[in-house]
Amino acid sequence: xxxxxxxxxxxxxxxxxxxxxxxxxxxxxxxxxxxSGCRYHEVFEEAAAYGAVLSYRKNRGKGAVLKxxxxxxxxxYQPPYTVVTVDADGQHKTADAVRCCQKxxxxxEALILGSRRDDGGQVRVPLRSRFGNTLTRQAFRIRAxxxxxxxxxxxxxxxxxxxxxxxxxxxxxxxxxxNMLLVFADQKRPIVEIPVSKIYINGNETSHFDxxxxxxxxxxxxxxxxxxxxxxxxxxxxxxxxxxxxxxLVTMVGWMGAPAVFAVTIxxxxxxxxxATVNFTINRKYVFRSREKTAVSAFQYAILAAxxxxxxxxxxxxxxxxxxxxxxxxxxxTELTFFTLSWIVQKWIxxxxxxxxxxxxxxYLTVCGxxxxx
Length: 374
Known about the structure:
It contains twelve helices and nine strands. The chain is an alpha/beta fold. The longest helix has 29 residues, at 227-255.
């Protein structure tokens, strides 16, 4: 079975033509009306003659409605099936959608992209599309280490096996499609391109892509520094603060003639308190971007810091007094030991990412079958 998923926002009659051609070719058609409003009711009513329509009152973004469409498909249809996403503006030929599905059926573990290749100037590509495609292509190659010619194509086919992982990919607007490529590249999943017709109707004027806002969202995904790297940098800053304060304090207390155990313990506690404050602030604001109340996350962080401090201090004294290791080398060993534990607890407990919206959004009308309103 082949299913065409069409996200649509304020479409014209090209949506109806696209749905009809796909239906006549044997596709099950699922259309998602992304809050187009009452003015476009007749268009969707005509399109409902050829498939199911999910209609939302408010605009939610291409990524959000694609995932909602996939949830609907997953609930309504039994595997095996192949899904192809098709734009509503008539820029994808039905024959190309068929070819993408055929490729996906042969390679069920691969994401198939309908790639609009350079045709030697036979089709005039709008300047914003040509410039954006080239820049994004190079940025993606540098970030992902994988070459994809058409990173912005909306014509994508995949088997039912890939629907669950696609539902877990973040992004509610155009950045969802870029995140899809990044996730597949990072997970070493195959991405296969096949050449398709290049169609730009009236200079692509019907596109709802915002060249400023949506470009920022996309490049934020491409250029995003992984959280673990930012955590490492934050930890490095905290470590330098901690180690600098520790070295200064242990030297000062040593000059006062204090016993080694006391010097190590008091210096480690004071240095840890200072570095923990610095580390918490950086992690909360810049690494995990937590929306949790400061008091709540600060309390949880304090418990973690106290636990790590206790373990850190015990291990530090064992290494210095028991193993006879240098005070300075022992500090390095203990910091490396507790780094991973700290990352896991902060990532998944203290600053865990809570979903901004419900997994099952409310407020849509389902038009089923070939025009039957449910």
